[in-house]
Fold each of these.
Amino acid sequence: MSAVLVINSGSSSLKYQLIEMTTETVLASGLVERIGEKLASTKHEVSGEAHKRELPVATMTEAFTVMVAAFDEHGPSLAEFPPVVVGHRVVHGGKRFFSATIVNDLVKINIDDLSELAPLHNPANLQGIDAAELAFPGVPQVAVFDTAFHATLPAAAYTYAIDAEIAEKNRVRKYGFHGTSHKFVSEAAAEFLGRPLAELKTIVLHLGNGASACAVDGGISVDTSMGLTPLEGLVMGTRSGDLDPAVLIYLNRKAGLGFAELDTLLNRSSGLLGMTGRGDMRDVVAATDAGDEAAIVGLSVYIHRLKHYVGAYLAGLGGADAIVFTAGVGENSPVVRAGALEGLEFLGIRLDPERNISPERGPRLISAEDSAVAVLVIPTNEELEIARQALAAV
Ligand code: ADP
């Protein structure tokens, strides 16, 4: 019996899961939110029961102490299920990390060096690693990178058509994100279809608050919609996705918006929120049903962009065996799924309307029997994928 502790540390939060790996069952999960504020809130879930508290938690190290105390108080006992490895989600692995990596001092220096590419995430991920080393001395720490799955992108897909010297010097290229999810989901799709991964061409649409598309050929990422940062590509909850880069220059000149304001505009007040006043797809769909004009346009932009990437990746892959929807919107929104694939029957993509609206939760087929392309909904599980990779690394 071996347990893996999975850690996702953010700038003010710690999320964790303890997973028993012979059966791949979650023994406990929890989170500490609002670290550094007056009162943090904590939740520890075990055997279907949630234990919540509010208390001051000043640092990530303290958050780990709180987490260990929650295991002591509510179980399961970490003495009974000692983690054999701690797996950390790390957002940016740049060009250096293309697989899960056992953490040592050099790895930490490299993660730190990549902070300039992910200033909100990598420093927080490092704090989680440092705190875990203190809390679990002698237990190997493994970094699992969001970018790693996309290390296989060909130059044609990752190169931006700008001055090569400037790009090289500043490490400007497409890296791609959500790699852990795209890998998990594309492998689960092959398993669901009972076909060898090596033979399968798959388009994965990870549609959560952040959203990205990925073209997977034989288990290998060959194209993806997010770029240097997670801003490029699809329309997201609060992020714009693709736009003419000159919009930034124009808004700077015309409206006097500086870099900080443009950063906030595109990352925090654009996307569904910017267009419709609502960042949550459930609210947007409800508003369209009520005839809200901005919501109708916003949803149509979201779907238009999605279809654009489906078409691009069908062309890039030379057809697809499967199109897979995952994450909050992908798993739960029949309207978005139907919209994204509407009119693609000429490519052999045919949804079954009944299957699409079925309230079923697990992995499922939603295309019609005569659809040449299998359309699937597969719930993502990034924590399990991190645990698997962390265990495999040691
Ligand atoms: P994150 O990227 O934060 O991990 P999730 O994958 O949990 O996000 O997705 C969150 C999003 O899923 C919410 O913002 C919401 O828009 C969407 N969502 C959840 N349930 C539904 C639903 N029933 N219908 C449409 N959208 C939903």
Note: The chain has 15 helices and 14 strands.
Amino acid sequence: MKKFITVENLTVVGIVLGVLAGLYLPELMLNLKFIGDVFLNLLKMIVIPLIFVSIFMSIASLASLDDLKNMGIKAIIYYFSTTALAVLTGVIITNIVKFDTSDIPKGEKPPEVGEFTLETFLDNLIPSNIFESFAEGKAIHVILFSILFAIAVVGLANAKKDRVVGFFDGTNDALMKIAKWIIALSPVGVFSLIGYVVADKGIGVIISLWQYVAVVIGGILIHAVINLGLIAYLVGRFNPFSYFKKVREAILVAFSTCSSSATLPVSLEVATEKAKVDKKVAGFVLPLGATVNMDGTALYEAVAAVFIASVFGIELTLMQQVIIFITATLAAVGAASIPSAGLVTMTLVFSAVGLPLEGIAIIIAVDRFLDMFRTATNVWGDLIGAKIISRLTK
Ligand code: ASP
């Protein structure tokens, strides 16, 4: 009995009870929303300092900057190849399954999402005021600054370097201790988050779009289990199932919060404490991955584009499918690691192939539901990457 009462198992119970309570006691779950919000805020509270400190510590503890280059190149190759594989899986499935979209209303209301272009993304890449970036939670800015800062500190005279590194080493341990306290609250946190979503959205919306929902979830499962599983097994030489058991808490929190960045404290904790991934690698690969590596989002964007094309009766040419492949990969890299971010960057894919942006209004109803699956896959992809790179850089 005692063995059963672990935070991981209680979190599963929290999710199941959350779904049931959302279905049968919706009023109560709407009123209990604040509990989930408190849990989410606690996670978000430590994310930005954690990104800064863990990347800094990871670089500062490497033997040389060549090791940084080695780890960085491997991480980038991993992120891009797995994201591209995810999109490819999405494109292949949508070529096999033909959507029946005859009863789906075209939707007249324009979508309430901002537009995302590659220019604005690149333009926003470099911070002009790092304190503003910290305050606004711009992870990519914090990562860039942390890498620069760490490289600069590594080049300082030993006495100065030791003082700065010693300070951040202690800070890192303290933040991870806070992370552990917050993780202990996850069963209650996920209960409230899931219960609220079910109570607020209901599950009726899924029925009219069931084929689209099934294709996205099916594609995500193929990618998470088969593609990433095989990569883990063949490249990383580890068993993905036993690894999953060790890191499942992070996947459950990702599923419930729909935010890769809010899940970061949990991913760092389970990877280093439970799965014994090298701290230097986890501290670098997980925060960077949470920000740029989103396999679930990439697959989702590709499937959504093909689905909307079918709703509007547009036959996609091979060239348009290639454009979807490229833009969905970029859109996933550009998506922020927060709920529904994938919906915003989808405008890039739609504009590139000339699909009507109104199409987004059609799929908005099921976005939060699909976000759970894609965020869980995004985080699973980061965790597999951390373990593989930890093996490859040994
Ligand atoms: N919610 C996702 C994440 O945080 C991003 C998305 O909307 O696809 O990873």
Note: DSSP finds 19 helices and no strands in the chain.
